[in-house]
């Protein structure tokens, strides 16, 4: 009898403590792909008769490595919908959705939770040169401390709910340079440009480029640095011309769009500059090769490959 009363008391205590915050149902979209609507700011996952929706008005997925936190509330919404038939993209994205299936239930996340989006680059590698390009970004989306309010006012809590990966593409940096280099008379900056992009080698150390033939298979070498022998890629919003370079004051047009700087070199490993000098008519030709140079912007980077021919500089 005492055992029975003890069990009965425990059941009553548990029932009395139930405030609707228990995990009553499992939300499972593990096999669903994250998709987005082209005509609105909704990101979603579909699972037969269910849809999990994120509405983020004005949010732009970044083309750089970063983590962003968005607070749920106001126009930033998370909604879990149930339909009476198989749900499709048209039911989510169309201004006037199809008549069927219809929404039969909806849970809405209450204010205060977080949508955490971590963006990282997607790279492709050239198997021949070992060069890499950033072809897109992966955005890993996690919902933290989210509470769904059900139609009966019960609440379902998730300290962490993995929404999934959403991928965006970016236009790869062209790097469509010809191999003809120019050099400024005073600063000795070496530059290569085409259309709206330029690759410059700055503050070159003395003796790296000189009018003296190098021995066979014995190029002059130096390391890429942050100041001396710095290598910088820039792209612009307009077209470049020869007149842009070698000025005391940098021209205001075209406007700089983005900038990548090469990581400092490591002896016998990466970030190495090689210069081979031969005669060229009455002058000299300097062929500059960059070995395992890595271009960096913030937390992102890409490689120029094992041997990138920067170009040929003609001097007299």
Walk me through the topology:
Blueprint: H1 2-17, E1 35-36, E2 42-47, E3 50-55, E4 66-71, E5 77-83, H2 89-93, E6 103-109, E7 114-125, E8 132-149, E9 155-169, E10 182-183, E11 190-194, E12 197-202, E13 220-223, E14 230-236, E15 256-262, E16 272-280, E17 283-291, E18 294-297, E19 300-303, E20 308-315
Antiparallel strand pairs: 1-2, 2-3, 3-5, 4-7, 5-6, 6-8, 7-8, 8-9, 10-11, 11-12, 12-14, 13-16, 14-15, 15-18, 16-17, 17-20, 18-19
Report what the structure shows.
The structure is a single chain. With 316 residues, the chain is mainly beta. It is built from two helices and 20 strands. It has helices at residues 2-17, 89-93; strands spanning 35-36, 42-47, 50-55, 66-71, 77-83, 103-109, 114-125, 132-149, 155-169, 182-183, 190-194, 197-202, 220-223, 230-236, 256-262, 272-280, 283-291, 294-297, 300-303, 308-315. The strands form three sheets. Strands 1, 2, 3, 4, 5, 6, 7, 8 and 9 form a nine-stranded antiparallel sheet that branches. It has a seven-stranded antiparallel sheet with strand order 10-11-12-14-15-18-19, with no helix packed on it. It has a four-stranded antiparallel sheet with strand order 13-16-17-20, with no helix packed on it. A hairpin with a 2-residue loop joins strand 18 (294-297) and strand 19 (300-303). Residues 1-24 have low confidence and may be disordered.
């Amino acid at each position: 009898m005492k055992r029975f009363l003890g069990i009965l008391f425990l059941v009553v205590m548990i029932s009395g403590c139930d405030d609707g915050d228990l995990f009553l149902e499992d939300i499972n979209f593990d096999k669903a792909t994250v998709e987005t609507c082209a005509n609105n700011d909704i990101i979603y996952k579909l699972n037969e008769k269910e849809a999990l929706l994120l509405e983020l008005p004005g949010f732009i997925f970044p083309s750089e490595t970063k983590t962003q936190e968005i607070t749920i509330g106001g126009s930033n919404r998370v909604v879990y919908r149930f339909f009476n038939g198989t749900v499709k993209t048209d039911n989510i994205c169309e201004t006037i959705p199809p008549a069927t299936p219809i929404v039969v239930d909806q849970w809405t996340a209450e204010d205060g939770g977080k949508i955490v989006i971590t963006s990282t680059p997607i790279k492709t590698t050239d198997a021949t040169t070992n060069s890499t390009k950033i072809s897109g970004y992966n955005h890993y989306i996690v919902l933290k401390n989210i509470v769904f309010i059900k139609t009966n006012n019960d609440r379902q809590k998730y300290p962490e709910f993995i929404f999934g990966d959403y991928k965006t593409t970016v236009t790869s940096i062209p790097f469509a340079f010809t191999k003809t280099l120019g050099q400024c008379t005073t600063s000795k900056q070496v530059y290569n440009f085409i259309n709206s992009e330029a690759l410059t080698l700055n503050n070159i150390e003395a003796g790296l480029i000189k009018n003296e033939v190098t021995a066979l298979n014995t190029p002059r070498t130096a390391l890429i640095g942050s100041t001396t022998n710095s290598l910088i890629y820039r792209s612009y919003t307009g077209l470049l011309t020869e007149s842009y370079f070698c000025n005391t004051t940098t021209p205001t047009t075209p406007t700089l769009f983005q900038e990548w700087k090469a990581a400092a070199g490591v002896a016998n490993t990466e970030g190495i500059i090689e210069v081979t000098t031969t005669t060229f008519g009455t002058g000299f030709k300097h062929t500059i090769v960059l070995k395992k140079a890595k271009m960096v912007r913030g937390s992102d980077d890409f490689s120029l490959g094992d041997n990138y021919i920067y170009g040929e500089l003609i001097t007299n």
